[in-house]
Design goal:
alpha/beta; TIM Barrel; eight-stranded parallel β-sheet; globular; binds pyridoxal-5'-phosphate
Length: 220
């Protein structure tokens, strides 16, 4: 069994245990996004051969280079990094999910630039739930307006909320879940939890976890 395979088994087993510890039993299964930034195309291929399908990337050019090398595989690609508005066209063309939408301008650009023939682009609104001025993410009070902007774009499908709290701030997961529950129509997905904290995130209601180093080891 390769390193990637044993790491994947370990992470999947932890996810399954955390799913059982969730406070609600009607919750959907957790989707594991393997965060492959600064990992090689070979490392992604090795994990894909073990059955992993969802991969997350932060840097557009790096992602496009690796996608080209992996074009023979059917994978689901998630863009999880900060978005510059001049990159939206390429993101809309090459990704299935975008987790880091935090302003209306990005919603409009992604919506207009997504080719309808590709099917809807799945969107998550990134929310700043720890009031850290340095972090990207919409303020909680902006979520309603960004969600309304998504509803005007038929090529986008608003799926949920995402957060990247500072390490150790597991209260942020509960905050994001509460923010979603308070929306007029709560969204189906919460993307929260990384290698160090995906278990408490799942217990708080994460439906998508973004795990890098626990699967791939240190980044290069
Ligand atoms: C890098 C990154 C991750 C994965 O972090 P690990 O600690 O390696 O699991 C998850 N989400 C985002 C947005 C990231 O940038």
């Amino acid at each position: 069994m390769g390193n990637g395979e044993s790491a994947l088994r370990r992470v999947r087993a932890c996810i399954a245990a955390a799913e059982r510890a969730r406070r609600t039993d009607e919750a959907q299964p957790v989707r594991l996004v393997a965060v492959s930034k600064r990992q090689s195309a070979e490392a992604i291929r090795a994990l894909a051969e073990c059955g992993q399908r969802d991969f997350g990337e932060n840097y557009l050019q790096e992602a496009l280079d690796k996608k080209a090398l992996l074009a023979d595989l059917t994978l689901t690609w998630h863009f999880i990094g900060p978005i510059q508005s001049n990159k939206t066209r390429a993101i809309a063309a090459h990704f299935d999910w975008v987790h880091s939408v935090d302003r209306i301008k990005l919603v409009r650009r992604l919506g207009e630039q997504r080719d309808p023939a590709l099917g809807p682009l799945n969107v998550l609104i990134q929310v700043n739930v720890d009031d850290e001025t340095s972090k990207s993410g919409a303020a909680p009070e902006e979520v309603g307006a960004i969600a309304a902007a998504c509803a005007e774009q038929p090529t986008l499908r608003l799926k949920g909320l995402m957060c990247i709290p500072r390490p150790g701030n597991t209260k942020a997961f509960e905050k994001l879940a509460a923010l979603n529950a308070a929306l007029p129509e709560p969204l189906p997905d919460l993307s929260m939890g990384m290698s160090g904290d995906f278990e408490p995130a799942i217990e708080a209601g994460a439906t998508i976890v973004r795990v890098g180093t626990a699967l791939f080891g240190p980044r290069h």
